[in-house]
Amino acid sequence: MQVLTTRVGGVGLLVAAAVVMLTEMPEVSATRWTVGGKMGWTTNVNYTIWAEGKHFYYDDWLFFVYDRNQMNVLEVNKTEYENCNSDQPLHNFTTGAGRDVVHLNVTRPYYFISGKGFCYGGMKLAIHVRHLPPPPSASPFNAKNSALRSSYIGHTPCVLTAVFAIAALREAFRRFCLVGSARPQLMENSLLGWYLLWSHFGDEYLLTTRVFMSQRIQV
Fold it and tell me: Where would I find the Phytocyanin domain in this sequence (predicted)?
């Protein structure tokens, strides 16, 4: 009888594959726009020009930096924006710190001005918030791969658990077959590994058992 042992190097490849799946998880982050850039929220800045070419998407933020002792941040409707009327603002985002943020959590036009007459000096901003456009349509092959990758990512915790449990089991079986004096302790480790697989995969451990037994002994 010849004992066939599976090298742990194969498990290392599985670990590397799992790590790659983690690194390929998509990251989506909102943009925080500092209104006016380095100039901030102040007079004598053309905010129409500043907003040109910029795309404001759902869940982005506007960051207003200004002189807290003079200006403020008011959201108004289109008519009040055009007339620089701050008497009945829709929202007053002024906190008194001169550092105010506005969460763009609705896809629609937004109109901002500063009251106290500063709107006439150019402190007015109009933007339109839209949903982030979908990614370019992929070929059927790429779409299938993308769906599979998403499925793998969703099961990453289970995959990692299985990988490390299998690694421990294979090493334990290898030593169990080669080192007789260490068999009691190694058997205990093996049972622990089986328990880990059972607790995470239930009845699927039967299939795993068949695979291990078929790989362990060849006549």
Answer: 31-131
CA distance 215 to 10: 13
pLDDT greater than 90 at residue 129: yes
| 37 shares a domain with 21 | no
User: Is pTM beyond 0.70 here?
Assistant: no
CA dist 125 and 114 (Å) reads 9
CATH number at residue 100: 2.60.40.420
Whether the Cβ atoms of residue 64 and residue 102 lie closer than 8 Å to each other: yes
- How many folded domains does the chain comprise? 2
Q: Taking residues 126-131, what's their average pLDDT?
A: 98
37/125 same-domain check = yes
